[in-house]
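Run log, item B.
One chain of 245 residues. Sequence copied directly from the ordering sheet:
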Amino acid sequence: MSIHETIVYKDNDGNVYSGELYTPRSSDSESHPGVVIFPAFRGVTELEMERAEILAKEFGYVALVADIYGKGIRFTDIPTALTVIRPLKADRMGKLKPRLEASLNALRSVPSVNKNKLAAFGFCLGGLCSLDIARHRLDGVRAVISFHGTLNPIEGIPLDSLDDISIQVHHGDLDEHVPKSNVDAFHEEMRARNADFVFVSHGKAMHSFTDPESAKIAPSGVGYNENANKRSWTATLELLKEVFA
């Protein structure tokens, strides 16, 4: 079993966020690895919460489904979501980074979390968030994983070494939303950073291949792929076991 609670936290500018926290049912004196999960464009959904519950219940990790939009802000359609997403992606240092730091700090504040054993993963926009966690070299982060995430580097920042953070990227080979030029640029960035990275291109998989509901809420070019979903999740669990050992 695991314990689920909604937590409210703030960034340094006073913006308020609401995340979903899952902790193992064990003594508060025990120390557990912590994982931040960044959602796709809709914000916190059952998809991310189910993954968080598995991490807490079956693996003994503390898992926080993060909120980067703000308390009570959730989306059901892409055009509305883009009004918030575009400014965040356009200013990843000034607007997005503080939200990532706030989410990681909220996880660190849980008494049972081992602050030296942290990881992050996310879906689509959340994949970008997770990769940026590595790019910012935030303390205690051992691994980041991206599922069909945006891969663009942050413009204008130094390409510092990432050889002490394990990076895993799961990409759909048929993903029309992440062009090959972005894939190539990501590989160039990781090589320049001497990164410990794995890039998996899943055959027959489109964008949003982890979400069974994706085709219902998004335009063409997205779709669930059972093989890619299962294989990417298995690889994620193996990486977490490795870095938290």
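Observations after the first pass:
- Helices lie at 46-59, 78-90, 92-108, 125-135, 180-192, 214-217, 226-244.
- The chain has one domain: 2-244.
Flagged for discussion on Thursday.
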